[in-house]
Design goal:
alpha+beta; Elongation Factor Tu (Ef-tu), domain 3; 2 domains
Amino acid sequence: MFREHPGLAVSKVAAFSLAFCVSAGWGSGLGIAAGVEGFTEPYREIDVASAEPGILVKVDVTEGTDVSEGELLAELDQTVLRASLAIAEKQKQLRGQLDSAQAEFEMRLERSKKLRELLRRNHASQEEVNRAASETAIAEARVLAAEEALQVKQLEYNRIKAQLDRRFIRSPVDGVVKRVHKDVGEFVAPTDPVVLTVVQLDPLLATFAVGSEEVGKLALGENVQLRFITGKAAFAGTVTFISPVINAQSGTVTVKVQFANPDGRYRSGERCVLLLSNDPVKLSRRP
């Protein structure tokens, strides 16, 4: 049986769709307006991955759940890290070595002062004064070493705390959970770290295959007229992408238009029309 080449079939469909849309009159009540049919897609589609390997112990969302930026989506096991954090917290509070070093330094400093006073009265030798000064400097260095040790312990505490925080998987954007890839009890490996997929649907993007002759009427940042096939009123969108390459099979150029979808009324994948008429049309900022 003869089978048509897939690429040829795609080019025929694109050419037919383009010819049909350009010749059709869109916008009942809006006047005649040639248009190009396209489809909506998410503004962003993000595979949310874990920054750390581990066992997944909690998933707080399901497919279709609305999420906000920073919202907790899932958690990895934290048992070992929490124990390490408790140890680090206790260690950074231990000041015994520092207090001991400070007490010794103060004692050496006071003795050095007394010896210098005795030297002025010829009741002490220069060698005794020099030795006392050296011992004072050593005691001061021990204080500094104890302070630095506490600073290192504080940094170690901060490191473990940051590592612990990386075991909480949060949403990077306001959006909707499209897919949950892993379930509770599964191991999240460095080679397969994706746990969920989140899509951002406000704003939405509409993608069109515009004829190479018509694309010259469009410019980046330009406000254009859109209409959903199921709707009547035209609304405004902004051109955010015009491909620098013409599709050799269909002779079209990919154009993406961004528009607001604050109430989530429209879904990704809906069919819509990019109106190419220059006739004045009353626009709405929302579909």
